[in-house]
C-alpha cells in the first residue's frame, strides 16, 4: 500500500470481510470515486462540455485467484453479502443479482481484449449512497475494471477503461449513458474540477477558489422509469441533431455543433418536443464555456448564477427535474452564503449540488434540511464534497 487511502475504514472492512469469506487475502484492491456534476447537464452524449469532480466517496474492489484451473468466478456485494457465481470467460446478464451486471459487463469488455483464463473470488464495498445521483454504478465499473486490468495483466488506457464501463451500462444495465460518470471517476483531481470535452476527450483540471465548497443534498427520491426517461431524452437530442444536420449549412454531427442563435432561429420549424429538449444541452454547453471564463476571473457569484440557470433549463426544457429537487434549489436561493444550486446527474430524483461559501456551509446544510423536511416531512442527506483524485490501485 503506497499512499494514504481515502475512506480507509471502508477499505479495512472490505479486506476483513474478504478474508472471512474467502480465507485468503486479496491479491489486488482498487478504488474508484463517485462524481458530482457541477455544470453541463446531458451534454456528454451530445459531444459537449462538462465541469464535474471526483468526490471523496467511492468503491473498493478486491480480487484473488481461485485455486485450481477453470474460470469460475465468485462475486460478493460486500454490503449485503450476496454472492453471484458465473463463468468469468462468459459472463451473462443476471436477473437475480442485478448489482452483478455492472461488473459482468466490465468483465465482458476485458474478455474482448483477452479472454479470461482463470477464475476469481471478488468482493466490493463502497460508501456512495445508491440512487443518489453520485454515480455509484460508474464507481463500481471503474473499480472492477482497474482490478481486472491488473489481475489479468491487460493494459487499457484511461479512456478505454471509461468506455468499457459505459458499454457495461449500455449492454448489461440498459442505460444509454454518456461517458461523464466514468471519465470523472477515472480522471478526478484533488482540490480541482474536471473539465471534459466529450468530442476531443481533452480533459483538464480547473481550479476553483477554496472560499467555496459543494454540498450534495440527496433527496432520496427516485422516480419510476428513470432509465427509460433518460434513454428517451437522449433519443430526442439525436433527433434534434439530425434535424439541424439537414437544416444548417455547416456540418452537424451532434448538438455540440449547434449554437443558441441557430436554435432560436429554427425552434418553430421543429417538432415541438424535439425543439424543447434540444434547448437544454445547447444552452448547457454555453454555460460551461462561460463558467470556465468566470472561474478564471474568480467570479464565483457569476458561476453560481449559471448553476441556477442550468437548473431552470432542466426544469423547463428537459423536464428531468422533480418537486423534491426543485424545492431544494428554490429554497437554496434564500439561504445565506449559497451562490448556486442545481440538480446533478441524470435527474428525475437523486441529488442537488449546492455551491456555498465555506464559512456558511454548516448553517446552510441545516437550513436546507429544514426546507426539505418542512415540505416533504422527510430527511434529505447532506454531505460536504471534496474534489478528490481519480481511481487507482490501492494494493
Ligand atoms: C447520468 C449519465 C451521464 C450524463 C448525466 C447527465 O449521470 O450517466 O452520462 O449523461 O446523467 O449529464
Give an account of the 3D structure.
By secondary structure, this protein is an alpha+beta fold. The protein has two domains: 8-207 and 389-393, Ribosomal Protein S5, domain 2 (2-Layer Sandwich); 212-385, GHMP kinase, C-terminal domain (Alpha-Beta Plaits, 2-Layer Sandwich). The chain has helices at 8-22, 100-113, 136-152, 158-173, 180-187, 226-247, 260-266, 272-296, 300-318, 323-332, 361-376; strands at residues 28-39, 49-65, 72-77, 82-87, 120-126, 192-197, 203-207, 212-222, 338-344, 349-357, 381-385, 392-393. Helix 10 (323-332) packs across helix 11. The protein starts with 7 loop residues before the first helix and ends with a strand. The model has no long low-confidence stretch (mean pLDDT 96). Alpha-D-galactopyranose (GLA) is lined by residues 37, 41-42, 44-45, 177-178, 180-181, 345-346. Alpha-D-galactopyranose (GLA) binds at residues 37, 41-42, 44-45, 177-178, 180-181, 345-346.
List descriptors:
395 residues, alpha+beta, Ribosomal Protein S5, domain 2, Alpha-Beta Plaits, 2 domains, 8-stranded mixed sheet, 4-stranded antiparallel sheet, 12 strands, 43% helix, 24% strand, globular, binds alpha-D-galactopyranose
Quick structural gist:
Helices cover about 45% and strands about 25% of the residues. With about 400 residues, the chain is an alpha+beta fold.
